[in-house]
Amino acid sequence: MIDQEEMALAIVSMTGLVGVFWFFRSFLAGYVSQWLLRHDYIKAAMWFRHRVALKSGCSRCKG
Amino acid sequence: MIEKKGKSLRKNFKIALIGNPNCGKTALFNALTGGNAKVGNYPGVTVERKEGWVSSPGGLSFNLLDLPGTYSLEARTPDERITSEVLFGHRHEEEMPDVLIAVADATHLERGLGLILELRALGKPVVLALNMTDLAEKQGLMLDWVILARELGVPVIPTVATQTQGVQELLTAVEHQLRSVGGFWSQQVPIQNFQISHEEGIKRRFAEIDRILALAVLKPSQPSRWTDRIDRLVLHPLWGSLLLVLILGLVFQAIFTWAQVPMELLRSVVGWLGEQVAHRMPEGPLQSLIVDGVIAGVGSVLVFLPQILLLFLFILILEDSGYMPRAAFLMDRLMGRVGLHGRAFIPLLSSFACAIPGIMATRTIEDRRDRLTTILVAPLMTCSARLPVYSLLIAAFIPNRLVLGSLRLQGLVMFGLYFFGVFAALMVAMLLRRSLLKGPKPPLLMELPTYKWPSPRSIWMGLLERCRLFARRAGTVILAVSILLWFLASYPKPLQGQPGPAIAYSYAGRIGHALEPWVKPIGFNWKIAVALIPGFAAREVMIGSLATVYAVEGQGEKGVKDILGAKLAKDWSVATAMSLLVWYVLACQCFSTLAVTRRETNSWTWPGFMLAYMTCLAYAGSFLTYHFAVALGFG
Prior knowledge:
The complex is a heterodimer. Chain A is mainly alpha-helical. Chain A has three helices and no strands. In chain A, helix 2 (25-38) runs antiparallel to helix 3 (42-53). Chain B is α/β, with parallel strands linked by helices. Chain B starts with 11 loop residues before the first strand and ends with a helix.
């Protein structure tokens, strides 16, 4: 038997977490692509920049 | 990738579609890709970027890029600038196209030829898609595309994009161009020699256009009079205006009447789903989350899908038939009186769907003050996200009786709300143009296209796109807000023995009660105050929020299966409902609108001003409405 309260609160927390990530997605995408660049993961950084950061509207990548 | 000149070709090629606005470029894009497209924005600007995928008869794969419409590569608006930048290779994130498909409207070839001559001067492989050849034929225009191809030096393929005619031939021609150049072309664009902005260059270009037209196009001695005949009525200052009001009135009547059956069906499916889950799951917080949070919240918004689709069906038909520019022409006189530029009509009209594309469409307005005025009043036009709120309140509080013969009162009230939004926008524009944004009004120059039958295919694709957007919003923002609001309305639980409903002790209850003194003068209760906050994420979210708050509040009330409208009718007065309707007409309840205004104006000043003036206007409007209604005995 599942604990309904625990389950409901887990769903609420996950939703909140995803919501916060979604809201700050452009900032996060920018930081990740810059971190990759700083650590010389050029290919990964370019992939991330084109596939994720630019689509999220990240101002750091609009160059 | 294999790149051997003249022998084998790369796997993927980039093809760009370029043409004047309204030449059928997007219809051709849809015909080529079959709707298999990815829509986004160009980085750094809010210009839509549309990319699709298509295979040629010879087995080549193309990435098809739909570039913003332009009359010239000498860009004047942000949209046109994108097209030029992509073609000149100035946008680093965008790979340069291998082949250009120039799309030209066969009925207005003189306009399209200028752009084609500019494209040809770029020295890139070009294929000309001569679109709307069926209409040209009906108008009696005789086009010799063999001569046209010879004179332009590019392959010419006649197409009817709305019927997918000529699509395979076009792809074959593109493939042929690629094979003949081996998939290569110079990244060096002869931009230095490309000086059409010089007076001499422009004169030469016009002379060349006239020469080619004289050789390739034979105009009918007696032009088609159908468009002229219809326009005599449609553009008449009195009859045309009456017709416009009649058409809009019919649209709102139909939205209410025709959507009833599918809406009831959706409502019963949502109700059935809620009951099934409630029966199959033991009572508890998880059951409450699913039934009162997710199903009540998302379901209450989803039932309005038929009305939204009907609204878009009418908008698409009016757009496709060529009526919309006529409506703009009719409205220009009125708009001119309040100081709005004629070009503001299309952005304001787009704002009936959503203020965001409307605000983005203001990029076609060159003057900064004209553009700012249009941006600031665009959110006052009734967007489709307001439709569910209006429908819910009208259905709950306005009797559905016949008035003035065969008109339904509910439809009339809906029409009145739309009209009120337009009226408010015009008044605000007038005030702005006479104070903050004073300046002369430039004349309107616009071309009226010929009438044509709306294409069922493009209407279907337009509706499908709206369906997708609505479902995505319901499955993301509305779902998330419903879940979070359920939590806020359910926790913390009251201590044993505490009097009153449990929701009054919850976070939502506390927030609502804290806000109540601010909203009480305009007739709102604390539950409306709570629902208005998530309504900033998307206007229709307010319905989901109200549904969740009322569902959580009604927990444990056995036998209460009322739909949201019935619950509101029991809890609110007519004066409160009217006040909320006025609030929704005038308030800037949309964070995305503020964000896009920030991007378009490149400052927080104007979105801040927009939020401030609209909130003050809404508060004053709701205050007056509420107290007037109470004085009339509707309290």
